[in-house]
Amino acid sequence: MRLHRRALGLLGAVGICLVAAACDSQPSVTSATAGARDILLAVDAKSIDAKVPPNATLEMLLRRHELSPDITGSLLEAVSAVFNPKQLRAHQDYRITHTLDGLFREFRYQIDADRLLRVIARPVTGAAEAAAFTAEVITLPKVFELDALAGEIGRGESLIGVLEETGENVQLALEMATIFGGEVDFNSDLQPGDRFEVLFERATRHGEFVGYGEIKSAVLENAGRRLTAIRSMDADGRPVWYDAEGRSLKRQFLKSPLPFDPRITSRFSNRRFHPVHRIYRPHLGVDYGAPYGTRVMTVASGVVDFAGSNGEAGRMVRVRHAGGYQTAYLHLSAFAPGIHVGTRVVQGDLIGRVGATGTATAPHLDYRILKNGRYVDPVSELKRMPKGEPLAPAELPAFFKLRDEVMGQLARILAAQAADGTVPAASASARK
């Protein structure tokens, strides 16, 4: 595996800036939305930082810090207007601030990497009045930096493995798998020597990595073919992907219903030795070995026409698609919420999770395709699927300009990496 990286410039920051306050008896410094002045709490304020314990509710959390029932009720009412208290998650950070004589001042809860719930006490004019609170969900700031990677798949490696070895988050690999999901089955199609390049935004907050922004372009060299993906926007402002000639990368069917780490353990066959019944009989699908609970996605948009237990197939979902196609997903451990006969699903929707229900020796997904009521080999059938629709001729000049811009950025960053010799220590030559 070879992988190089280099950052190229700052694209800017969004949101607001929160200044962490010291605990104990030090004054706490906070800020509200972008453009607002910092609010400096009195020096008699004390902050307690902690994590939400398992199975806690927001009411339990507040009462734990000795807030009265009236204060707790009023605070919960304010919070409910901007955030569902039932979405409180264990192990997330929170802070509660009060004066040394016990008056509540502020509550903060880290909803996720990008959002913060903040509740502050509003001044009241009379001692007999009930406490009043202002609650808001604040979008935290990010700095987006254009970055690029180039790498090679080694023997026994997956794209996830290659990127994780260099400290990248699995989300980058999953995004690339989604982009090329109509062309490549990342469970089985990757080969040693396949290469990839990707131009993307790296998001940081206060200098620390917090995720990824947009992928701008990507290249995958697989089995002797070069696949290029350019990000554009459709008429509704949604991201879409095109190849270098302006043909859509979206296909009617995804190449795989699973995230791409699983492996094919049994292929379509008219005569396979059954591991349980110990006899030869047809195997009308493709088996993917995968951990229990792995997400199973519908490979194409359609309508669920079966969802239930089906003998040796165990828990099964079957989806009816356009063009006389149906897909079936067998041996599931569970159905996704809302999946039942008549449910409309969109390509990539979660429909269930891998299991070993019915007749199975281990957790896996038996994935099947029917065409006009007859089972067909999923691997062969997907190879016959037509290419995506091209852009209209009038749209091509603008697209080619965008293509040349992002591919030029990718080439310049990778050339600079090669000139700098910025190669990770865990190179392919070092491991062989």
Question: What do you see in this structure?
Answer:
- By secondary structure, the chain is of the alpha+beta class.
- It has three domains: 17-139, Roll (Nuclear Transport Factor 2, Chain: A); 143-251 and 391-431, Nuclear Transport Factor 2, Chain: A (Roll); 263-383, Glucose Permease (Domain IIA), CATH 2.70.70.10.
- 16% of the residues lie in helices and 38% in strands.
- It is built from seven helices and 25 strands.
- The chain has helices at residues 58-64, 69-80, 159-165, 170-179, 378-383, 396-420, 428-431; strands spanning 3-14, 29-30, 39-40, 45-51, 93-99, 104-110, 115-122, 132-139, 142-152, 195-205, 208-222, 225-233, 239-242, 263-266, 269-273, 280-283, 286-289, 295-297, 302-309, 315-320, 325-335, 344-345, 350-354, 364-371, 374-376.
- A hairpin with a 6-residue loop joins strand 15 and strand 16.
- The longest helix has 25 residues, at 396-420.
Looking at this protein, list some descriptive labels.
3 domains, 432 residues, Nuclear Transport Factor 2, Chain: A, globular, Glucose Permease (Domain IIA), 6-stranded antiparallel beta sheet, alpha+beta, single chain
Compile the SSE list and pairings.
Elements: E1 3-14, E2 29-30, E3 39-40, E4 45-51, H1 58-64, H2 69-80, E5 93-99, E6 104-110, E7 115-122, E8 132-139, E9 142-152, H3 159-165, H4 170-179, E10 195-205, E11 208-222, E12 225-233, E13 239-242, E14 263-266, E15 269-273, E16 280-283, E17 286-289, E18 295-297, E19 302-309, E20 315-320, E21 325-335, E22 344-345, E23 350-354, E24 364-371, E25 374-376, H5 378-383, H6 396-420, H7 428-431
Antiparallel strand pairs: 1-9, 2-3, 4-5, 5-6, 6-7, 7-8, 9-10, 10-11, 11-12, 12-13, 14-17, 15-16, 17-24, 18-23, 19-20, 19-22, 20-21, 21-23, 21-24, 24-25
